[in-house]
Amino acid sequence: MSETTFDGKFGDYGGQYVPEALMPAIEELNDAYERYVLGNEDGFMDEFRRRLRDFGGRPTPTQHAERLSERYGREVYLKREDLLHGGAHKLNNALGQVLLAKYMGKERIVAETGAGQHGTATAMAAAHLDMPCEVYMGERDINRQRPNVFRMRLNGSEVNPVTVGRGTLKEAISETMRDWATNVEDTHYVIGSVVGPHPFPAMVRDFQSVISEEARAQMREKTDGLPDSVLACAGGGSNTMGAFAEFVDDDGVGLYAVEAGGSSLDVDEEAGVAPNSASLSTGSEGVLHGARTKLLQDRDGQIMESHSVSSGLDYAGVGPELAHLVDEGRVTAVNVDDDAALTAFHRLSQLEGVIPALETAHAFAYLEENHDELGETVLVNVSGRGDKDLESVIEETSKRDIDIAPDMDAFAGGF
Amino acid sequence: MGNPALDAAFEGGAAFVPYLAAGDPDFDSSLEYVEALERGGADVIELGLPFSEPVAEGPTIQEAVVRSLEGGMTPDRFFEFVEALDVEVPLVCMTYYNLIYRYGDEEGPRPFVEKAAEVGLSGFVVPDLPAEEADPLREACDEFGLDLVFIVAPTTEGDRLDRIMERVSGYVYVQARLGVTGAQDDVSGQTESSLDRLAEYDVPKAVGFGIKTGDHAERIVAAGADGIIVGSALVDIVAEGHEDDEDAETVAARLEEKARELKEGAERGLAQRAPEAERT
């Protein structure tokens, strides 16, 4: 496991920058994190692991990708978090936090979601553990991710549209914080990534580190060694930290956080828009949503609207630990643009029979473009499956000339 | 620690502290609106410097923030706004920490505080800066003689309360109920217990969140508050004027009238308390 912090700081990053009304709840959560998660009090971690196995379907496999290996002339392995219940790594964290909320005696769950995967995972965990749940989701994301909205509702959760701002994850997080500040005495806020005030970044990393714990053992078993490189896409950074955590101390393993380069890395200061979500690659230090971290912001400190073809990466901030590991040189922050990610989506679907989330496709786009630098053995974290993205992919592919894509006219009903 | 202007403003015992977002809906109208609040009886004015992610605010102030940002408000324009204001009462800047942290050429809060002192601000309220993270701003405020106001919530007790009260100066902002800012139809029952918890601390207690009418102001001051903070009920007047395309003079007159109602309510509350004070 990578470093565990008790003061909530990763170098200069992290901390607790929240309204005073929330501070007692954060202290209570920190106490619960130390007792139950770090100390396994009342067998919390045993129950968490059991439920991850029986309800979640862990361990997920680490699969040798034969055709990608052939294409790139090196051994490529896939950590298949898309096979986890719900179709994404998000369940690891959601199940951990909803269970912790139960141990803490909370009576209600709120969560925010961008692509809907975290909302779906939280709704499933809440139904599984019999907790009422409300999910805030930007109106724009609701339109981009309808299948996940249906899934949340089917699991019995309320989905509250957020209409302020651009109606994406940033606004949904702010709105969930407002709900939490109003109902803090009986409500737990299940933050969906390694972001927010301490202890969330450390706690979410711990819940997600099961990914690298398994992958490390599985790679040893399959290759008798460790991978030369681990690739994971990075928005807020929860699958990234999950995939990296157990490799951080292995100096020989290169860690690559692949961000969404969107349509461009340039920013439009006047319009307050960054046409990307690459806060590690292009952002600057600031304070947002409870933590000091790298942000997409203008020179005055106003937060920019971000962009990615993938709504799960479309966020102006990133986890403070990831920002720290990049500054330290332990993690390499890279990025690929929307076009490359869409192309990679089609390529992986065709070559391996794995339809990846658009988020995940960013990691495969980086592999395509830079495989020569990644060593003999490469592990890619398949953070989620792409079923939720099919409408977006059809629409976005139709706008572009992607030679490996199927004939998009066929999707208009002309099979 | 701190600044004599705010101490003096609370001497009367029933201070009226209105809030408006600077530059809402535009620079010039907003100057008139703030000046109208002083004519209506403001003792201290909280001026909002808008941040794009105002997590502690309800819909009314969120919308004010959007109008102000769309009107071109920035930290530098905010300082120009303060310089352009023709008011005598002390002004407190209410904003989020990222804008303070990012200002100027060096990292940290010092350049912002230095500039705030230069334009004549008296202090700060920073809703997303709890006592645990506030030392750099507190030090800069001490260096330049400004106050740092902290918010105390209904959930704030024990060690946390002590930690805040060690760092507060000017006044303490007593949050009347849980949640975010917004006008309410009645006074929260949590106010009195919050004031009781703070009684032993020697700093003025100004109650905010949800105060809408002179009657609310009266009841809160009668319950022992040294002042009332009113935001959303005033921002509503600005928003209505903007929506109905009214001229700034008409809206300013309405703000002045509302300010007078609130100040008079606070004074009635103090009068109710006075006999008791004489007995003790």
Automatic annotation (TrEMBL), chain A:
Q: What EC number(s) does the entry state?
A: 4.2.1.20
Q: Which residues carry this modification: N6-(pyridoxal phosphate)lysine?
A: K90
Q: In which pathway does it act?
A: Amino-acid biosynthesis; L-tryptophan biosynthesis; L-tryptophan from chorismate: step 5/5
Q: Which domain of life is it from?
A: Archaea
CDD domains attached to this UniProt entry = Trp-synth_B
User: Could you confirm whether the keyword Lyase appears in this record?
Assistant: yes
Task: Read off the PROSITE patterns from this record.
Answer: TRP_SYNTHASE_BETA
Q: Which HAMAP family match?
A: Trp_synth_beta
Query: What is the annotated quaternary arrangement, including any partners?
Result: Tetramer of two alpha and two beta chains.
- Name the protein family: Belongs to the TrpB family.
- Report the protein name in the record: Tryptophan synthase beta chain
What organism is the protein native to?
Answer: Halogeometricum luteum
Specify the taxonomic lineage: Archaea, Methanobacteriati, Methanobacteriota, Stenosarchaea group, Halobacteria
From TrEMBL, chain B:
Gene3D superfamilies according to UniProt: Aldolase class I
UniProt xrefs under InterPro entries: Aldolase_TIM, RibuloseP-bd_barrel, Trp_synthase_alpha_AS, Trp_synthase_suA
Catalyses which reaction(s): (1S,2R)-1-C-(indol-3-yl)glycerol 3-phosphate + L-serine = D-glyceraldehyde 3-phosphate + L-tryptophan + H2O
Q: Which Pfam families match?
A: Trp_syntA
Task: Kindly indicate whether the keyword Lyase belongs to this entry.
Answer: yes
Q: Which domain of life is it from?
A: Archaea
Q: Which residues form the active site?
A: E46 (proton acceptor), E57 (proton acceptor)
Q: What class of enzyme is it?
A: lyase
The EC designation for this entry is 4.2.1.20
SUPFAM superfamilies xref list: Ribulose-phoshate binding barrel
Chain coiled-coil ranges:
245-272
UniProt key word Coiled coil: yes
Which GO terms label this protein's molecular function in UniProt? tryptophan synthase activity
CDD domains found in the cross-reference section: Tryptophan_synthase_alpha
UniProt KW keywords: Amino-acid biosynthesis, Aromatic amino acid biosynthesis, Coiled coil, Lyase, Tryptophan biosynthesis
Pathway annotation from the record: Amino-acid biosynthesis; L-tryptophan biosynthesis; L-tryptophan from chorismate: step 5/5
Q: Quaternary structure?
A: Tetramer of two alpha and two beta chains.
- In UniProt terms, what function does this protein have? The alpha subunit is responsible for the aldol cleavage of indoleglycerol phosphate to indole and glyceraldehyde 3-phosphate.
Instruction: Identify the PANTHER family for this entry.
Output: TRYPTOPHAN SYNTHASE ALPHA CHAIN, CHLOROPLASTIC, TRYPTOPHAN SYNTHASE, ALPHA CHAIN
The family classification in the record reads: Belongs to the TrpA family.
Q: What is this protein called?
A: Tryptophan synthase alpha chain
Species whose genome carries this gene: Halogeometricum luteum
The opening ranks of the lineage are: Archaea, Methanobacteriati, Methanobacteriota, Stenosarchaea group, Halobacteria
What gene name does this entry carry? trpA
